[in-house]
Amino acid sequence: MAIDRIEVFVTDLTIRLQREISSGAYDTGPTGSLIGKPVLVKIHADGVVGYGQIRPISPGHFMPDTVHGMVSAITEFYGPRLIGKDILDFESLLTMFDQTLPANMNARAAIDHALHDAAGKALNLPVYKLLGGLCQPRIPLEWSVGLASPEKMAQDVHRAMKEFGLSVACLKAGGKGGWERDVANFIAVRESVGDNVAIGMDPNEGWTVSEAIRVIKKLTPYRLDYLEQPVKRQNIAGMAAIRREMNGIPLMADEGLMTLADSYALAKADAVDVFCVKLYKVGGLHAAKKIAAVAEASGIQLNIGGLAVQSQLEAAAGAHFYASSPEHLIMPAAEFVFGVGGLGPDPLVPDSDFQVKDGHVTVPNRPGLGINVDERALERYTLKREAVK
Ligand SMILES: [Mg+2]
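That is the input. Now the predicted structure with magnesium ion docked in place:
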């Protein structure tokens, strides 16, 4: 199944998502503007078509890819080297990625997902069958809560529980007001929603080691369920020092985990209990499976992150990865609720049964990623297109 053509589309979103996090604003931008919009890759190989879509989260966050960087990486660098290659040669393509541009993970993930979608369609198998087979078809979802007043954060969690049936929430932290404000936010939310919701905290690198330790001590009586990337991504020793003070509360690496080498370094330093795997961050499904092996060998669990804003394709890739992972390897609740109805329908996939229900989603079992992109909607919402032949 040789790749003969690759198309790249930057597509519009119908809802602008703006949230505050410690590193700045998470913003999908106004309608019609390219910045903040998802990039869709369409790979043609011997009559089969595969789709992958990733929204670069920059600016104001930790990933170097931008919309323009992704399009350039795919059309000028990775794309020409993919033409003529077999869609199933994931391992040699990974080597090509490393040798061509080492760190454009968003671009790689979009390509990797399109390759998996095409391969699944060619073999008439859902993608999870290409990833080791089915372990968990029904996937619990979590709700990520942006920085706001304690009342607003609590309201957001109540809405997630009532409207979508979710029972896991992650509160952003590390904003103005310092760690004491974060502690107050957490206590207010916990007291408002009670003990039936698992609540984690994510300062997105916004604390120091000593601040993180003080927060843990303050929040242990209020059942902090996990803590995500409190300090700078490079500070592995700091993560290990924090973990020693956690009293069994799981510590998760997010920004600190992008590559296979990162996963090994974190495991070797006994720095974390959980890896947050976001497919856009690690470069797609094939790379994520390698990180999963390091995690399994090290007694580390995986959490499936990535908001997948209005993207059925991005959410589906996360679902196939989750579904193919054994229960003991996963810390429950995946983050992609905004791709399965949590933020309105995907403009490219207006009719879909891949939707959140009772706080869960079921992995699509049709061939490939199992998502039918509406080609007319793709034409309508395309802001920019390129092709590689
Ligand atoms: Mg995070």
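The CA atoms of residues 171 and 296 lie 27 Å apart.
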